[in-house]
Every structure is written in structure tokens, then in C-alpha cells.
Amino acid sequence: MAWSSVKIGANSMIGANVSIGDTDDHPERLHTDPAPVIIGNNVFIGMNSIILKGVTIGDNTVIGAGSVVTKNIPTNCVAAGVPCRVIRSE
Which residue among 26, 28, 31, 90 is the active-site one? Predict the structure, then answer.
């Protein structure tokens, strides 16, 4: 769901059943603000992952399947888990 902004860079691939949201569920009820999501170039997001509001994923990054991305992920790395964390850097 995009209330504010979701930007997806060139050559990025997003697996099946990935959720990307720039807001909490029903912000008008929860009185929360949206925050943009930025996905860099050449990013691969594995299936069933969830990308939460306010997150930036750097260029050339792989997000493992089933991950929940709650914080920014840097460029040139592999990240996975719940919550998602860097498991390998180049």
C-alpha cells in the first residue's frame, strides 16, 4: 500500500507475495504518518518478504525470502531474517 511514496530502482526484482508499505495499516485510525520506501538499483527481494515504512534498501542488495525489513539495509550486501539484518557484505 502506498500512501506517500514507494520508489523501486532499475533492474530490481521482487518475488511473489512481497508486501511493500509506506504506512501502517489504516493510518487514519492509528494516527500515524507515512514514510517513503526506497529500493535501490539491482536489488533482489525474495518471496514472502515484508518491507516496512521508512526503509531504504541500497543498490546491489539481496533480501532473503521471508524477511521482514524494519530498518535501512546498506548497498552491496545480503540481508535476511526476522527482523532482517546484514549477513554478508561485499
Answer: 26
